[in-house]
Each structure stands twice: as C-alpha cells, then as structure tokens.
Amino acid sequence: MSNPAFKPTDPIDPAPLAGDGSGLRRRLETHLRQSVGNLAGPSNVEVLPAANSSLTAEAIEIAQGLGGKGVSIPVLTGMVRLTDILLIAATALITAFTGPGAEGFGLGNAFATGVSILFALAFFQAADVYQVPVMRQGLSQLGRVAAGWTLVFAMFALLRTTTGVGAGIADAWIGSWYALSLIGLCLSRLIVYRLVRHWMDNGRLERRAIIVGGGTAAAELIHDLEAQGDNDIRICGIFDDRSNDRSPPVVAGYPKLGNISALVEFARLARIDMLIVCIPLRAEKRVLELLRKLWVLPVDIRLSAHTDKVRFRNRGASFIGTVPFVDVVEKPIADWDMVAKRIFDVVFASLALLTLFPVMIAAAIAVKLDSKGPVLFRQKRYGFNNEIIDVLKFRSMYTEMADPDAKKVVTKGDPRVTRVGRFIRKTSIDELPQLFNVLAGSLSLVGPRPHAVNAHTDNKSWDDVVDGYFARHKVKPGVTGWAQINGWRGEVDKPEKIQNRVECDVYYIENWSILFDLKILFLTPFRLLNTENAY
Q1: Which pTM value belongs to this model?
Q2: Of 479, 380, 389, whose CA–CA distance to 428 is shortest?
Q3: Element (H, E) at 465
Q4: Per residue in 267-311, pLDDT tens?
Q5: CA angle (297 as vertex; 282, 390 as ends), nearest 5
Q6: Which residues contact 474 (CB under 8 A, 6 or more apart)?
Q7: 371: closest CA among 409, 401, 392, 403?
Q8: pLDDT tens-digit profile of 455-498?
Q9: How far apart are CA 136 and CA 193, in angstroms?
Q10: Which among 206, 180, 195, 215 is positioned nearest to 99, based on CA atoms?
C-alpha cells in the first residue's frame, strides 16, 4: 500500500489557475493522499519555523468563548420543510374527520393534500422562507408563509374552475383546512423565529472561520467577506508563521493569535468550522506545506482565490457571496450525513444490545467469578477531534495489574490477562460494553477504532510514529472499522502495523457511506474468526 513520497518540490503547473479550479484541487488532493501513503516514513516537507507552539492567553480566552455545538443549516432547513409537510398533512386529516360537514378522508382529499404540499414547498422556496436570514425575521417570515399558502389555494381554485379537478371535494373542508393550516404554519414559524434568534445570539448558526496568512491579502479578503449582505462567516482570528514585520499583529481589526502549530491546538479547543488559507495560489509550495499540517483537523479548508483574480466556473470551487474559494478538504460526515449516521448507530446498537444481552450477562458473571475487581474497565482514549473519552470494556486483566494508561502493549501469553480475559479478548466480547458508548454518543458503531491516549510502539507515541496520525480523528471513532475488517487488530508491535491501520482509517473517512458502514458491520463477525493477533 505504499505510494510515492510527498514532494513539495514537484514542478508547478500554472495551467490549472486559468481554469475552473478543479485542476489545482485535484493536484492538491493527490499530494495529500500521497502523504498518507508514506505515513511512517520521514517527512520531505520543510516545516515552516515555529517561534512558539503554545497558545497565548488571548488565544485561549477566545477559544474558550467559542465552545458549544453548532446547528447545521442544511439540517435546520430540512427539518423546517419536514415540519411544513407534516403540518399540512395533519391539518388535512384533522379537518376531514372533525371539521364542518366531516365526511372522512377519501382519494380526492388525498390528491388535494399531495398537490398542495408540492405547491406549498415550491412557493415557500420561491419566497425564501427556508433561508436563515428570513427565518430570523418575525413579521416578514409570517407574511411570506401566509402569502405562499394563500397562493396554493388560489392555484387549487383555478384548477377546479378551469379543469374541474377536485370539483367533488367539499368547500367546507377546503376552507377549514386552509384556515387551520395557516394557523399551524404561522405558529410553527414563530417557534422557528425564536429558535433561530436564540441560536444566532449564541453563535450556533454561523460558520466560524480562521484566516491562515496575514498582511494585505488577508485584509482584502476580510473586507470582501464583510461586504456580503447575508454572510454567515464569523472570523475568529488570524494565524500566520511570519513575523510581525511581514504580517501585522492586527489585520482589519482581527488579532493574529499565533503560528500554524498554535492554530492546530486552537482549532481543537474551539468549535472552528472552516480554515481559509489566504495565500496566493501561485505559491503552491507554501500552500502544500500548510495543508500537510492542517488537513488532520475536522474542518472545511478553503483556498482563497480572490487575490489571484481568477475567474472560476462553479465547479471545483465555492463562493461566499461573490468571493471565490478553491475547495480542497471537505469536513467529513457533516449535515444530513451526520444525522443519517447517528440514526444508523442508535438503531443497530439497540438491536445489537437486545441480541447480545445474554452473552454480555454471561461474560459479566464469568469476569466476576474469575478474579477480584469490577466487571467493567474504563480507559481514556482519543475520540472525535482528539477529545478524551472514557471507553467501556469488560475487564480482562487482574485488577492489580490493570493498565488504564496503556503504557505496556498486551502481548501473547501476557501474565496480566486473566483466563476469562484471554477468551473475551480473542473473541472481542470484551468490546461489547462499547455499545453503551454508542448510545451515549461518544462512539459510533463503525469508524476508526479509538486508541488509548498513551498508545505507543518502540517507545514512541503513535502520532510520532505515523505522520498525519490524527487525521483519523476527523470523525467519531467506532466499535468496529475498516482496519479491523482488513485484519489490522490486536497487538501493535511494529510501526508498519499502525501505519496500515491509519491508511485504512483515512480510506474509510474519504469513502464513507451508509452502505459502506453496513458492509463493515456485516463482515465484522466473520473477521473476528481471525484471532491471530488478538491476545
């Protein structure tokens, strides 16, 4: 699985800069993937000098003020659409059975309801009522919704008059349905208005961005972003490796908080959504040096193209207002993908607990009878974005020899492992309590396996052994994963083993889908039959 080493000195082809941005994006992605292929080897990139890798007091204060989870705008707008659909359908049913002259809900009512929902979604979309700037307006939002719903019934009336479609539907039902739905839609929009304003005040409906690179280019970018009317970008600071004489400590009113090494630490402390690299695209070598350090973070990375005055088609690029960016790294498993994966986790983890509950009870009894101590064992491990989480396992070692910090790798015939412990470790029964971690939300059912905080090989921590190791923490860790399906489980006594694990983990992150998760879940019981490296 080896790939050519990462070479920042490769010839720079200026041709992609004149096109749509996709050529440069492909080349940057290729460089990043090649760097993963040589993870265990020495880096050929000349790292920019770092004067101080620790955060300043100002940076820590800002990071602490940026906590809390954000609200995904695609998920928010999707949920509002779903609420509209349910309200329209529910009020149609209610009025059909309880309204004036109620005659029940027939095919004609069902047809009218379906057509009205389609028209309503179209008119609401045209009226921009699913846009966050409109959702945070009170009377304006209600007026748009009322106008859109009234237009639906105007269209329906026009159809009845000109074509006779729906002529058999009772007028009393239509009038009652219109009034009840209008009241329901307006009330729901008042709730949306209050929620959106609350989230806006708490900074949960904004994309928090860091500018990488300072000077005049950063000042121009900030000015252009702030000139966009409905801009949802909040600039949280600037990071630059250059000294103050080349990169001022304050740019357009925003402070420079540190160098690139400090940026990685800052982004892990704060909820940062996007890194905007404000460096000319022609300085490709420096861009690649920066991306090699930043791509391990679970954020969107955009290269600002405004300073190069390049004309982009809307392919391989994105826009904030009229400001163009080259999309290099996308935040993995975000928005609706995140919702789908969470539903997948809850459903299948619950089914697994119900199915395997007798096995877990038997394992708990066996652990308790075999040796003194608690049945469950808690270990500190790395979770999403390097957060420290407590992972549950059935205890497999003697209590007095337990190693919660994982300072010593478990080897074949390890005297610390109990008799029952050897069996449950080989069969991975010791991992079953992690299903409770899944339901609690600290783990996913499928993902990169969470490693102990102090895990090491040859007296080196794994992030020192494998360049780019923390890229595997861009998504929530899992009970099982692609690396385990490919045989990389158990003892890690050689650098190559952890390198292969990380390569599989990165492949999983880049190719994730619900079907991929199902495949891994289906193959897991069969792969557990291979106990060669499980001690």
Answers
A1: 0.58
A2: 479
A3: helix 462-465
A4: 888 878 888 888 766 666 777 777 777 877 888 888 776 554 443
A5: 170
A6: 296, 297, 298, 331, 332, 384, 385, 509
A7: 401
A8: 666 666 666 566 667 778 788 899 988 888 888 776 666 777 77
A9: 5
A10: 180
